[in-house]
Amino acid sequence: MLCGGVGNGKSTMMKALQSLLIQLDIRITHNTSFETLGMKIISAKELGRQIRVDSKNSLRYQELTMLGIDDLGEEEATMMDYGNRVTPVIDLLSYRYDQMLFTMVTTNLTPKQIRSTYGDRIADRFNEMMLIIPYETPSFRTPQQSTDNAVKQ
């Protein structure tokens, strides 16, 4: 889990790992066939949207050998589906934890925010299944000239 403020390279690092895996061209056996090891990256917001549109999309992400979830905390943690409360990203993370599948996450949330958003159970599982790497540098993005004072620091 890469966590920290905005603009300090967490998503870039995850994409660099994805590119490295492509370049290494590592092949693993999967039953009787071979699979090239790679990591699918999707934003948490898009992941939640895709699962809400079609719950079968959850199965697709559950079984990936490696999954990168970018910007955890940007999605709606709880959604309503025909009057039922559903937690697609939490359910996906729980499944991947149970199956011991590689899951990489980037987030701007603090540990306290993760615990309040996803609950003690998921926060505890994060502590077990993920190496938490804090990014403490300020944003690398250079401020653009703007007349909008709301975006200036």
Q: Can you give the helix content as a percent range?
A: 40-55%
Tally of DSSP helical segments: 5
**Order of helices and strands, N to C?**
EHEEEHHEEEHEHE
Overall pLDDT metric: 86
- Strand residue percentage: 15-25%
**Quick one: how many beta strands?**
9
- Could you say which structural class the secondary elements and strand pairing correspond to? alpha/beta
User: Could you tell me how far the N terminus lies from the C terminus, measured between alpha carbons in angstroms?
Assistant: 27 Å
Report on this structure.
This protein is α/β, with parallel strands linked by helices. The protein is built from five helices and nine strands. The protein has helices spanning 10-24, 44-53, 56-62, 88-98, 111-129; strands at 2-4, 27-30, 33-36, 40-43, 66-72, 79-81, 84-86, 102-107, 133-135. The strands form three sheets. It has a five-stranded parallel beta sheet with strand order 4-5-8-1-9, sandwiched between helices. Strand 6 and strand 7 form a beta hairpin. Helix 4 (88-98) packs parallel to helix 5. The longest helix has 19 residues, at 111-129. The model has no long low-confidence stretch (mean pLDDT 86).
